[in-house]
Amino acid sequence: MGNKMRQFGLIIFGAIAGVMLSLNFSAVANKEVTEVLRPLPVEELRAFTEVFGRIKSDYVEPVEDKKLITEAINGMLTGLDPHSAYLDSDAFKELQIGTQGEFGGLGIEVSMEDGFVKVISPIEDTPAFRAGIKPGDLIIKLDETAVKGLSLTDAIKRMRGKPNTPITLTVLRKGETKPLVFSLIRAVIKIQSVKSKMIEPGYAYIRITQFQEQTGENLVKAIDKLFKESTVPMKGLVLDLRNDPGGLLNGAVAVSAAFLPSNSLVVYTDGRTDDAKMKLKASPEFYLRDTKSDYLKRLPPAIKTVPMITLVNGGSASASEIVAGALQDHKRSVVMGTQTFGKGSVQTILPLGNNTAIKLTTARYYTPNGQSIQAKGITPDILDESAKDETERLRESDLDRHLSNGKPKETKPEAEAAKVEPKPAVKVPKMENGEDKNKKREPPAEFGSSGDLLLTQAMNYFKGGATASDKNSDSAKAVN
């Protein structure tokens, strides 16, 4: 028996080594042969094959080789960081559908923590958002199925489904003594990525809820409409990126390019490979996709100089942080709100064949002035002290196995000028007994509405109101 197991182990070892060599060659086919033929970790591979053999021979039920190998690949990736993952054919297809701006499901951005699904942010105008799902909620059951033991991909599959079908989420929420139960109806999630309106004559409001393939073009249409609607010259524009979980990188570059001078540096990436080192600028080659027409040429010239305020919070992540950081570093916009999420890593989709792929973290994002966004986020120029619930919000740095911020980059800033020390914005109203009145506001005001306190503060700033005295305070470089 022992000899058979040893022989079996050697066969499996050879097969695994062959597979790894094949994957290695296919992944780096254009690199030097000496780079490809780095020594394999023999002892670790031997341990792997021994475990594989034991499962095949001793597990209580037969297990297919495909399942074991797939789970091994999945484990390798999920053990790296919260954003690397193996995408089977269904997950790969859903990823592609999601970037189109329409899919079936509940409308929540999630991650995995301690074996449970943790909500990063509900997406506006979706079943999850309307039901009251909040950032930081821990989903422990999907209908009658316990989440513990499911992979993130499996959990997402269960949450997705045909429109108009029900699903029950059981949720643990900080501050609640018992689990909360939410009954939701799945829907076709059609995300309107750009929303806009005139707040009052001369002052425009644009909200970006997610960065999709058409976000840049939709932004141009919104800006053109707003400028035509305004009966007076434009005096100020509010760009709202709160609770924007990110999306496509070219969408973030397009939005930044709409407001920045041509060829300005928007963001750069740094990783181990040459492909991971990029500088993305406000130039058509970095934001156009499958189109020959540069839609940004249709923008009114005044959009490059109209005073701007960008609103952010702990739900502003990834692409929205890139935009906020670029506008801030180039002194194009005042950034107002709370510290952003801190999702500053680059995930590359690497197809493997059979309609599967891996999503692998390959680089970090850096703002034009060389500040890493990862696990830290963007620090607003003006802090919103009224957002007390933001202290409880889940951020990248709270996620298990999150990628570190990385070493500071000693690069020459391409967007010169010191930033302003973050200053308090909206003062928190107090009751006579010292309690926070904001705790009694249920539900919170809709973004962009007349009850939106931070938007009101932005308008006051434009007009030299509530924060006018702050302009005379000493300035110092803020830490991003």
UniProtKB/TrEMBL annotation:
GO terms for molecular function: endopeptidase activity; serine-type peptidase activity. Belongs to the peptidase S41A family. GO terms for biological process: proteolysis; signal transduction. Residues 92-160 form the PDZ domain. Residues 387-444 have a biased composition (Basic and acidic residues). The keyword Acetylation does not apply. Keywords: Hydrolase, Protease, Serine protease. This is Peptidase S41. Residues 387-452 are annotated as: Disordered. It comes from Nitrosospira lacus. The keyword Ubl conjugation does not apply. GO terms for cellular component: outer membrane-bounded periplasmic space. SMART domains: PDZ, TSPc. It comes from the Bacteria. InterPro entries: ClpP/crotonase-like_dom_sf, CtpA/B_N, PDZ, PDZ_sf, Peptidase_S41A, Tail-specific_protease.
